[in-house]
Amino acid sequence: MDAIILQILNGLDKGSAYALIALGLTLIFGTLGVVNFAHGALFMIGAFCAVTLQRIFNISYETIDESRTDFLGNPMTVKTPYIEHWFGPEMGGAIIDWSVPLAILFSIPIMIAIGFIMERGLIKHFYKRPHADQILVTFGLAIVLQEIIKYFYGANPIPTGAPEVFRGSFDFGVMLGFDPNAIIYPYWRLVYFAFAAVIIGGVFAFLQFTTFGMVVRAGMADRETVQLLGINIDKRFTIMFGIAAAVAGLAGVMYAPINSPNYHMGMDFLVLSFVVVVVGGMGSLPGAVLAGFLLGVLESFASMNEIKSILPGIDQIIIYLVAIIILLTRPRGLMGRKGVMED
């Protein structure tokens, strides 16, 4: 039972990332009808926002400490971050330590701006083009963004630490009545799951309970009628593209301590996230979230040694097998709508 609970936790952790990226993908497809293969790059850029802010906070100046010497007897050079010089060692150290959560505030305007630039500068010209054209141009954009990140940050993963208070592990089993150390799980992964739940809940609440969200949902259902009512639905859809970019970026920011950011991490998640969207149903926001967590849990169970000893390599293909089975039985996905991507 403890192994099952641990795999469920691992699955919810993976599913949180899948669901957040798939949610943004579905927002863009549902509003603009664009298959955006550059969405994984937005996840990557969000992770590197956390890297960038951490580097900014660690910009230092050098001083000579006469009281300390190296092995040759020379006075040692000490680097002091400017943030500690301005706010004091205690407050400055805390700001550096909490750089990843603070990167949430840092990344939101950046990701929204990138989303606006992408939509207005490139993607708007492909609204009425075939989906194959949209896939090609956005995939090319993703490669360009990936190479830009590689040029400025290098090809190696960049470790990005979580705040010190969340670097340990939580004895989850004791809370459920198991023996101590039966189910140990990292604090930050639990934080990531809670963060994903808040973001997903916030997006659904925004679409469900605000006037702006209601108009967007109406536009997703019948764009022409909304335009006939005198509402500039295109402007609202552009804003939704920026929000979707921000969702992907925030997912990347908080994922940075879990998986050290690297230039190809967006591509690693992109294909799986598109499978999630297709399984959940193209254009269905609840379907994207449901499929994200479902496939995350299935992938986690498939990675168990007991399962891999019977079916070697099953953890690498389980998501695609499930996708094939679901699409054979439900061609529109779990919660897909009639008419979406159907000629």
Automatic annotation (TrEMBL):
Regions crossing the membrane: 16-35, 42-61, 98-123, 190-216, 237-258, 270-298, 310-328
Family (UniProt): Belongs to the binding-protein-dependent transport system permease family. LivHM subfamily.
A biological-process GO annotation: amino acid transport
Molecular-function annotations in GO: transmembrane transporter activity
Keyword Membrane: yes
Keywords of this entry: Amino-acid transport, Cell membrane, Membrane, Transmembrane, Transmembrane helix, Transport
Main location class: membrane
Name used for this protein in its record: High-affinity branched-chain amino acid transport system permease protein LivH
InterPro entries for the chain: ABC_transp_permease, BCAA_transport_permease
Membrane topology summary: Multi-pass membrane protein
Superkingdom of the organism of origin: Bacteria
Organism for this UniProt entry: Roseovarius tolerans
Matching Pfam families: BPD_transp_2
Location(s), subcellular: Cell membrane
PANTHER family linked to this entry: ABC TRANSPORTER ATP-BINDING PROTEIN, BRANCHED-CHAIN AMINO ACID TRANSPORT SYSTEM PERMEASE PROTEIN LIVH
GO cellular component term of the entry, any: plasma membrane
